[in-house]
Amino acid sequence: MFTDSTRAVFDGKNFGTVATLNADGSPHTSVVWVRLDGDDVLFSTLRGRKKDRNLARDQRVSITVVDHENPYHYVEVRGSVTIQDDPAGELIQELSQKYFGKPWKHDEGRIIVRISPEHVYERGAH
Amino acid sequence: MFTDSTRAVFDGKNFGTVATLNADGSPHTSVVWVRLDGDDVLFSTLRGRKKDRNLARDQRVSITVVDHENPYHYVEVRGSVTIQDDPAGELIQELSQKYFGKPWKHDEGRIIVRISPEHVYERGAH
Known about the structure:
By secondary structure, chain A is of the alpha+beta class.
């Protein structure tokens, strides 16, 4: 599903902006840390956050990840999510090391959001 | 509506990710150049692009702009858009100078998308 240059965008310390749907169907966007797991895209959030409340109603998302070194190179992934609890915060700890180089504070209610891509669009690859 | 630090994010060479709604109500995201005009957010696109087709059906958007110097600092603006033709490409030329330092190629069908903010959320300001 992903080309090498698409994978490189996800493997770098690049931020994603994820769009979910509010109760009235309007879009919401926020910034997330991401990584790939095979051909799925993973990010972490907390139970009760707007993203989580939105995804409980409607599982459809779009995420765009921009290459920090070359912002004209970006990837959009659209698909639906599944959510699992992450009580030990394994994903957020891993992402914190990737982006931040240090552990994340422990917080309650961590979840893993897994996007199964249905559509991948890449622009600006070399 | 905007604080000084919010304005600074828009005034910098920072990219926005804008979410619009597809025909089936699912979200679409893509990367845009932006600037403020008073308390409105402006970006440029072309007639017939997915963003334009989506906005013709549903005017609701969410845009997140990330501070390139500090990606933990970002702003989300939600609101509705109005669209006007920009046959001379005035906005794209201005944005090309801002981000690129050189003129944009002339292309037909340029439009200006104006977001009237209804909700502004800023995270990570100093």
